Amino acid sequence: MLFKVQRYNPETDKKPYMQEYHLDDVTSGMMLRDALLKIKESDETLSFRHSCGEGVCGSDALNINGKNGLGCLTPLSELKEPIEVRPVPGMPIIRDLVVDMTQFFHHYRAVKPYLTVHDPMPEVELAQTPEERDKLDGLYECILCGCCTTSCPSFWWNPDKFRGPAALLQAYRFLADSRDQATDERLQDLDGPYRMFRCHTIMNCVNVCPKELNPTKAIHHIKQMMIKEMV
Amino acid sequence: MSWRAQGMRTWLLQRLSAIYMLLYGIGFAIYVINYDVVDFASWQALFVPPVANIATLIFFFSILYHAWVGIRDILIDYVKWSPLRFVLWTLVTALLIALGVWVTMILYSVVTV
């Protein structure tokens, strides 16, 4: 199997280039991450992030044949040769397939991804009905791999100002939480032309999410909440 | 969240203007079919009733507002250099305001003939 992997070492290379690798012992059910590990056995200089290997940690987001995805969840059998592997787009490259995610996590932190409760804390836990809990399905599962945000043209255009789909999904995860009491502050914070309204419903985020979540829908719900607050 | 919420207000008004343009388009098509428009005078007469005149004025202002927001979005997304963005933005705004004044003068002249 033929692989073309983007290489870049900022200390020696002027710009990124594609390097070819051949892998003969490809077994059925092998994922791209397994292939990259095999390639690394023959070329130890290749750098990429990975950890759990089962789509939970969100470390190995890659651009695979032009589409963002997780290396550990992408079977080689589904990929057309030559398999082109690049770092996720729109982020500064640290080395080879490793990118600097600082900007991504800056936006994540900015939406205050934790419960805010103004009332005195109850002696037991903050109770929630099963229906209220159901509203968090499709939101809490995000693993913060960054596939969505780095595939979003609005994020490429305004990475410093637009929060990006992942952070906005998390913003809605707390807006939708019956226990959270910072609805007004959260909505106020997302107003303005940049933070949320750079979203033009391109839906690349939905297309690439390895957990099959829907940030576009979450953004739509945030807008609905804003309209309800307005009237 | 109040009406002063700029991002939301702009976004919402752009959508409302789109709905208005759609409704006006359908309404105007029906209105025109029922009239025998053969020359300029009969075309001009279409805009004499106050309802048609004002509805048309709102239609043009909807287009102008819709375009203003749309072009602003394009400038924010694609024009990175802020002085250039500012200049283009000012030019576009001035042009749209001029068009607004012009269309108001035209529609006003119809009722005062």
Mean pLDDT value of chain B: 92
The radius of gyration of chain A is: 20 Å
Query: Helix tally of chain B?
Result: 4
The CATH architecture term of chain B is Up-down Bundle
Order of helices and strands of chain B: HHHH
Please state the structural category of chain A: alpha+beta
Helicity of chain A, as a percent range: 25-40%
Rg of chain B (CA only): 17 Å
Pick out the low-confidence regions of chain A: none
- Name of the level-1 CATH class of chain B: Mainly Alpha
Beta content of chain A: 5-15%
Domains of chain B, number: 1
> What fold name stands as the CATH topology of chain B?
3 helical TM bundles of succinate and fumarate reductases
Summarize this structure as a short list of keywords or feature phrases.
heterodimer, A: 231 residues, alpha+beta, five-stranded mixed sheet, two-stranded antiparallel ribbon, 8 helices, 7 strands, elongated, B: 113 residues, mainly alpha, 3 helical TM bundles of succinate and fumarate reductases, 4 helices
Explain this structure to me?
The complex is a heterodimer of chains A (231) and B (113). With 231 residues, chain A is an alpha+beta fold. Chain A is 30% helix and 13% strand. Chain A has helices at residues 32-42, 102-110, 130-134, 153-157, 165-175, 183-190, 204-208, 215-230, and strands at 2-7, 17-22, 61-64, 67-70, 83-86, 93-95, 98-99. In chain A, the strands form two sheets. In chain A, strands 2-1-5-3-4 form a five-stranded mixed beta sheet, with helices on one face. The longest helix of chain A is centred in the C-terminal third of the chain and has 16 residues, at 215-230. Chain A is elongated, with a radius of gyration of 20 Å. The mean pLDDT of chain A is 96. With 113 residues, chain B is mainly alpha-helical. Chain B has helices spanning 6-33, 40-45, 50-78, 82-112. Chain B has a single domain (3-110), classed as Up-down Bundle (3 helical TM bundles of succinate and fumarate reductases). The A-B interface holds A 153-154, 157-158, 184, 187-188, 190-198, 200, 223, 226-227, 229-230 and B 1-3, 5-8, 10-12, 72-73, 76-78.
